[in-house]
Automatic annotation (TrEMBL):
GO process annotations (BP): protein K48-linked deubiquitination
Signal peptide (from-to): none
A molecular function (GO) term: ubiquitin binding
Record-linked SUPFAM superfamilies: Cysteine proteinases
PANTHER family assigned to the protein according to its UniProt record, in alphabetical order: UBIQUITIN THIOESTERASE OTUBAIN-LIKE, UBIQUITIN THIOLESTERASE PROTEIN OTUB
Residues annotated as transmembrane: none
Cellular-component GO terms for this entry: nucleus
Family matches, as InterPro entries: Papain-like_cys_pep_sf, Peptidase_C65_otubain, Peptidase_C65_otubain_sub2
Listed name of the protein: Ubiquitinyl hydrolase 1
Xref: Pfam families: Peptidase_C65
Length: 195
């Protein structure tokens, strides 16, 4: 399942550069980030889980290019599907259009690293990549004895069906930080238990 998901994401990323250029992004502005992402995905098969985790724990370098490009994908998907996201943007920033939100996103949240995203950005990225994500919130919003708050975002498989993509990634949100939750017995879970 992971190999098929990786191949599907690789194909999506390959196509994404031309999609972003169609929306109005400049080839010169996005090429290095796109190329880094394509190369990184191609090399993932040969790298260990520990190496991949280390990439994202090291400041600078490829990880920042990958995150920046995913933020571009997010903004691009928001712009392309503005009518779907406008009600969410109205709820967060009354009177602001999706285009204005994305322009602010580029200035405030895309370029600087370490900025959080809200549900519209998460939904846009999961739809752009066609990957289902579940987020468990460990932010104190659940009362005593209550289950954790959770949010599932699972894009539809195709426009002609209401079937949804399965949840492929589960994240734990703590204010200011997301962690990946691995199923028991997976390589990632085994790595995290031993460290």
């Amino acid at each position: 399942a992971n190999a098929a998901l990786r191949v599907r994401i690789q194909q999506t990323i390959q196509q994404s550069k031309s999609d972003l250029m169609t929306i109005g992004y400049s080839d010169v502005a996005i090429d290095a980030f796109w190329e880094t992402f394509v190369d990184y995905l191609a090399a993932m098969e040969t790298r260990s889980h520990a190496e991949l985790v280390q990439d994202f724990q090291t400041e600078g370098g490829e990880a920042e290019y990958l995150v920046w490009y995913m933020r571009l994908l997010t903004a691009g998907h928001l712009k392309k599907h503005a009518q779907d996201f406008q009600p969410f943007i109205d709820g967060l920033f009354p009177g602001q259009t999706v285009a204005q939100f994305c322009a602010a996103e580029v200035r405030l949240l895309v370029e600087p690293m370490g900025k959080e995203c809200d549900q519209p950005q998460i939904a846009a990225l999961t739809e752009a990549l066609q990957v289902g994500v579940k987020i468990e919130y460990l932010d104190g919003s659940a009362g005593p004895g209550e289950d954790l708050q959770s949010y599932a975002c699972s894009p539809t498989v195709s426009a002609s069906t209401s079937e949804q993509e399965p949840i492929s990634i589960t994240l734990l949100y703590r204010p200011g930080h997301y962690d990946i939750l691995y199923p028991r017995g997976s390589e990632g879970a085994d790595q995290n238990m031993s460290s």
